[in-house]
């Protein structure tokens, strides 16, 4: 994975990953309790995975993008849930990046959002998308257990860049619809063409 800035930048907030928001700060303090960084990261991960519904799973039309929007609504796509998780973890002092996968097959591909946490001297990806039959993502620093393993033979890719903030083209796309369900088609939905994804650095 490619770190694009000094580690301190992965603790900072922005207009999407709202680290300084009072409600996010309060929840981070509650989740932190007296725990160490790893246990806090696990608690935050499980809270977002289990307490925030995935928009497609819930058949919920609401468009949420910022961390606070996701927290208030209790729902979001994988990207939106990642924005909330990153905000909580950064608010609690754990450097956190946004990262992506390119998933699907044939002509039906989309960008999938997750996070990476900096713990025990390295970056570890975590996927708080939300579990369901056939999806069992777990917090782990030892071995990744993501929602979907990449199938390279089908053209899927892990994207290497560790983002501080979400790419603006992704934010614009999410803001361009009134019903977030319209972004989904079939199993995974259709997002940009592969030619538009190369900027994320493919592996």
Detailed description of the structure:
The protein has 203 residues and is α/β, with parallel strands linked by helices. The strands form two sheets. It has a five-stranded mixed β-sheet, with helices on one face. A two-stranded parallel ribbon has the order 2-3. The termini are close together. Helix 1 (22-32) crosses helix 5, helix 2 (37-51) packs antiparallel against helix 5 (78-91) and helix 4 crosses helix 5. The protein has one domain: C8orf32 fold, CATH 3.10.620. It has helices at 22-32, 37-51, 55-58, 67-73, 78-91, 168-175, 194-197, and strands at 2-3, 53-54, 75-76, 96-105, 108-119, 122-126, 157-163. The radius of gyration is 16 Å and the shape is globular. It is 31% helix and 20% strand. The chain is built from seven helices and seven strands. 40% of the residues are buried.
Give structural attributes.
alpha/beta; 7 strands; globular; single chain; two-stranded parallel ribbon; 5-stranded mixed sheet; C8orf32 fold; 7 helices; 203 residues; disordered C terminus; 20% strand
Number of domains: 1
Overall form = globular
Low-confidence stretches: 186-195, 197-203
* Structural class designation: alpha/beta
> How far apart are the first and last residues' alpha carbons, in Å?
9 Å
* Average predicted local confidence, pLDDT: 90
What top-tier CATH class fits best?
Alpha Beta
At CATH's second level, what is the architecture? Answer: Roll
CATH topology: C8orf32 fold
How much of the sequence is in beta strands?
15-25%
SSE sequence, one letter per element: EHHEHHEHEEEEHH
What Rg is obtained from the alpha carbons, in whole angstroms? 16 Å
Total beta strand runs: 7
Q: Sheet bearing the most strands, described? A: 5 strands, mixed
């Amino acid at each position: 994975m490619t770190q694009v800035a000094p580690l301190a930048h992965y603790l900072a907030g922005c207009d999407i990953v709202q680290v300084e928001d009072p409600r996010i700060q309060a929840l981070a303090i509650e989740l932190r309790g007296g725990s160490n960084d790893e246990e806090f990261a696990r608690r935050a991960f499980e809270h977002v995975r289990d307490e925030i519904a995935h928009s497609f799973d819930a058949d919920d039309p609401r468009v949420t993008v910022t961390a606070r929007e996701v927290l208030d609504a209790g729902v979001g796509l994988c990207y939106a849930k990642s924005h909330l998780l990153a905000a909580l973890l950064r608010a609690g002092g754990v450097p956190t990046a946004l990262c992506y996968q390119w998933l699907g097959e044939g002509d039906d591909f989309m960008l999938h959002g997750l996070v990476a946490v900096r713990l025990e001297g390295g970056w570890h990806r975590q996927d708080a998308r939300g579990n369901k039959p056939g999806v069992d993502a777990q917090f782990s620093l030892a071995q990744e257990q993501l929602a979907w393993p990449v199938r390279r033979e089908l053209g899927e890719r892990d994207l290497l860049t560790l983002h501080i903030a979400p790419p603006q083209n992704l934010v614009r796309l999410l803001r361009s619809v009134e019903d977030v369900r319209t972004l989904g088609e079939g199993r995974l939905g259709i997002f940009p063409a592969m030619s538009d994804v190369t900027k994320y650095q493919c592996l």
